[in-house]
Amino acid sequence: MNVICLDLEGVLVPEIWIAFSNETGIAELKRTTRDEPDYNKLMHFRMDILRSHGLKLSDIQDVISNIRPLDGAKDFLDYLRSRYQVIILSDTFSEFASPLMKQLDWPTIFCNSLVIDKNGMLSDIRMRQENGKMKAVEALQSIGMNVFSAGDSYNDLAMIRKADHGCLFRAPENILAQNPDLPHCTEYEEFISIIGEAFA
Amino acid sequence: MNVICLDLEGVLVPEIWIAFSNETGIAELKRTTRDEPDYNKLMHFRMDILRSHGLKLSDIQDVISNIRPLDGAKDFLDYLRSRYQVIILSDTFSEFASPLMKQLDWPTIFCNSLVIDKNGMLSDIRMRQENGKMKAVEALQSIGMNVFSAGDSYNDLAMIRKADHGCLFRAPENILAQNPDLPHCTEYEEFISIIGEAFA
């Protein structure tokens, strides 16, 4: 049985924090792991900012509802779901992903989750496990699945290399330069061809 | 992260072979594992009958397209998918499930597959693995998932008992009598309450 594991941000939807920062005008939320490599610290920095703006989870979800999937992403995903099984593997949080998953007709997603306090404010993060994308691919393989993985970032490389097949999608130059052996594409049509050939 | 593993036939859609037999009027296709306990033999018996009626995979899929999900199943599944992750675990074949998955807006399903010959006829079956439902639950738990499983048959008991939470849905009397410790429900509304309480 063929399963496709897809990264979310950059593959099907825009980078959520960037889009959220643009929607709200809160520039500090553009800070990424390049500026603060400790993800836990970065998330607590972001949660402090959200709190200082009085933004509850429901407000954040309202903003995220206005973020649209990438052009063509819905058709691409619909095509894949009618032919294969698809699981989105993401480092984001289910509470943020939810308004986007709704727009994509609720594909299955494995990601992390947030701790919400009694006032509806974000108070902590709950990571599912270390190296969660790669371990999810491994778990699928352990139950007899033939896995194709794709993504655009450093944190996708382990799952792409662990999978039976894989490619990069719209990856930045430095990742492409360091991974010349991986197929790469920038358009969904080509993406579909690469997947079709891998599973042929 | 919370994942619900649902059996397909009897939980979301009718028993496919029974419905297929009713749709086509081919009574012999009602034969089940109660009559022929060797599943491989039973499937080859069924494939011989399909072949003798000249039924290709495409014909079979056309018939299955006329089978409807159980009353209320689509709304039930939509509700679950908007709140949790759902994976359908079934012993059926992806080629049979596909017309039903389409009607349910393509939920993720882990099942088995068929070998189709060059004339489009069914020639063999390919089982993903032994005890596939239980092992899928185990694999999900191994990547940090909190799993709720539900089904109606003997082949669901192992996944229900392996999961963190579970219940029987519209199970026959003999299964209920042998498993008095498992929660049981017959309506989707109650099913949703049991799941909600388990994940609370």
Which sequence of SSEs, written as H and E, runs from N to C of chain A?
EHHHHEHEEHEHEHEH
Helix share, percent of chain A? 40-55%
Kindly state the mean pLDDT of chain A as a whole number? 95
Low-confidence sequence ranges of chain A:
none
> Largest beta sheet of chain A, briefly?
7 strands, mixed
Measured between the Cα atoms of the first and last residue of chain A, the distance is: 12 Å
The backbone outline of chain A, from C-alpha atoms, is globular
Strand residue percentage of chain A: 15-25%
Indicate the structural class of chain A.
alpha/beta
Number of helices of chain A: 9
Multimerization state: homodimer
* Rg of chain A, alpha carbons: 17 Å
The most extensive interface, with participating residues per chain, is: A-B, 30 and 30 residues
Query: What is the count of β-strands of chain A?
Result: 7
Largest beta sheet: strand ordering of chain A: 4-3-2-1-5-6-7
3D architecture notes:
Two copies of one chain form a homodimer. Chain A has 200 residues and is of the alpha/beta class. Helix content of chain A is 46%, strand content 20%. The first copy, chain A, contains nine helices and seven strands; from the N terminus they run E-H-H-H-H-E-H-E-E-H-E-H-E-H-E-H. In chain A, strands 4-3-2-1-5-6-7 form a seven-stranded mixed β-sheet, with helices on both faces. In chain A, helix 7 (154-162) links the parallel strand 5 and strand 6 (165-169). In chain A, helix 6 packs parallel to helix 7. The relative contact order of chain A is 0.17. The mean pLDDT of chain A is 95. At the A-B interface, helix 4, strand 2, helix 5, strand 3 and helix 6 of A face helix 4, strand 2, helix 5, strand 3 and helix 6 of B.
